[in-house]
Every structure is written in structure tokens, then in C-alpha cells.
Write a structure and sequence with these properties.
Protein name: DNA-processing protein DprA
Domain Helix-hairpin-helix DNA-binding motif class: 11-30, 43-62
Helix content: 40-55%
Strand content: 5-15%
Pfam families: DNA_processg_A (PF02481), WHD_DprA (PF17782)
Family: Belongs to the DprA/Smf family.
Order of helices and strands: HHHHHHEHEEHEHEHEHEHEHEHHHEHHEE
CATH topology of the largest domain: Rossmann fold
Structural class: alpha/beta
Largest sheet: 9 strands, mixed
Number of helices: 18
Length: 367
Amino acid sequence: MLQKPELFYQSALTAVPGVGDILIRQLISYCGSASEVFRSPLSKLMKTPGIGEVTARAILHPEVLPQAEQTQQRCEKLGVHQLFYTDNRYPARLKSLYDSPAMLYLQGRADLNAARTVGIVGTRQATDYGRRVTEEIIDALRPYQPLIISGLAYGIDIAAHRASLAHGLPTVAVMASGIDIVYPYVHQKTAQEMQVAGGLLTENRPGVKPDARLFPARNRIIAGLSDVVVVVEAAAKGGALITAEYANNYHRDVFAVPGHLNQTFSQGCNKLIRENKAQIYTRPEDLIEALNWDQTTVSKKMVEKPALEFTEEESQILALFRQQPVWQIDELGWRTQMPLGKLASLLLNLEFKGIVRPLPGKKFQVS
């Protein structure tokens, strides 16, 4: 087998029929690396949990590696970054999720590990009220410079992207297609403008056309990337509610903008609030206070206590809290590469020392 960069074999794994994100991780864990997967004999692959003979033969099929080469060439031509889950640039917020994509494709300059992220979603048939509220939210968030995440669709999504551009905030569109197929096409100009400080993001290889089954998968990425998801307007059923459901499952904060009782596109938001699946949004401060963005990043006790009072591992954790005041324990685990049991024990010690305190949703904040 020709020697190729590891990314080539990582890309090839994502092209194997029947091998999804979970199996990719299983294979790499068992074989040691993506390249070793393709160097392994059929008999060894079949010993991997979850891999049968059909899947093992699909991995070793002679067409898989040429397809990966085509994908890499296409990405290079488009200026697209391939981010495998082992890449340092891969978003830490997604790494800890059980169903996170093994590979992401990014076009643009977005920092997917930005200190603050906000997902804004809603109906494709936005009202003037919905667009106005979206604009007001983004304007109020400017001092905190969050990354704004949405889906590039008609209505609330495109309003969020355009308001972000107007107010100088980076914004990322998560797409249900290949990176080279902007959908809807009429948003092509906005998509290009977003790439200066933000960008386009997808888990689909170039050339993949938008398909109904890909949109819910896209929504999970929006939810997973976001510290908070705001549903501005939504019908009783639809993609915005799916995003909110994912966000709740991922222990993200969810807010919904209440609307007129007789408006179709207020039903979804009102339902989320009624069923306690979202907090009611009444003003931008609701988001800022819920995320503790109004708190100082560094605790006074962190500054006052001598460094000798902290172990090396505690200091590693505190270094992250100096970057931002609130962390989810799963994200801390990925950043520190510590087992969650050990991390929980260290956080408890820091809690006893009065440095951090627990919050709902498996989060911790500096005291």
C-alpha cells in the first residue's frame, strides 16, 4: 500500500458503506490508527466488535482508497479543511457527544472552539417580528463576541447569519449537503461573505446533495456546537424543534421566544416553554445571565491563592477556567484528557476550596 498522510486514510474510512461514526471510532481503537485499519487483514477486521464479514470486505474493497483520493483533491481545490475527530481543530463541544461526526468539512476561517457559541434557529417562514427579535439578540451579544451558528435556511436562519455579518460577529452555517452545494442557492452570496471570519460546515463529503434525511443530522451538529440554542419562531413540528430536542439531550441551554397565541409559527416556541423544554426568552440578558457571561472570567480566589495550593492537575483545570468561566464536565474531560471519574474528584476538591461550584446540566462555574 502506498504511504499517504493519515488524513487520507481517515477520509477513506468515512467513505466505506456501512461504516458509521461509531464504528469508525471502534476500528481506530482496535487497530490503532486509520492507516492500520487498511493494512489489517480480513481476519483481524472481523474480530473488531461490530464488524462482520460484509463490512470488513467493504473496508478492503479496492474502490475505497481511490474515492478518498478524489475527495481530498476536491477539498484542496475548494480550500476546504477536513477535520477528523482526532484533529486539534475539531470542535471540543462535539467530541464528547456519542453521535458526533467522525469527519467535518470546513470552508472558511471559523474557530469552532470559540469561547462562546450561540445557535439561533427557527421557521423558514419568518415574520417581521421573528426577524426583528433575531436582530436584537445578535446586536445585544456583540460585546461578548460569540460564534453564531445556524443552518443557512430561509427565514430565521438566514436572518441570523446576515445580522451577524452586519454586527461584525463570526457566523457558521451547518449544511445538510456537501460543502460545494450551497442550499438554497439564493444564499450563495451570504455564504461567501461568511467565510471571511466564519464559514460553512458539514459532515457530508463534497458532491452530496441535500436530502430530507440529512437535515435532522445537520440539526444535531448545530445543537452540539452551541452553548445555548435559541428558537425564535417555530411551528408545532419542524427542524427547529428537532434542534431543541438535541440540545436538551446534550445538556445545552435552550431558550424559546414566546409569540402570539394564534400565530402558527409561535406554536412550537410556546410548546417548548409549556413543556419545560426551553426557558422563556424575554430579553438578551436572559441568555447572558444563564451562561454567566456577565461574570468575571477569573475568580478572585484563583488569583489570591498561592499556586502551590493547587496540584498540577488542578492547575491544568484552572487554566481552562481562566479562558471562560463555565465548562461542561464532558468538555473539560476532552480538553484535559482526564478520565471523567478522576476529573469529577478534582472538581470536587476545587469546590471544597471554594474555587468552582456546580451548575445544572453537568456544568461548573468559577465561584
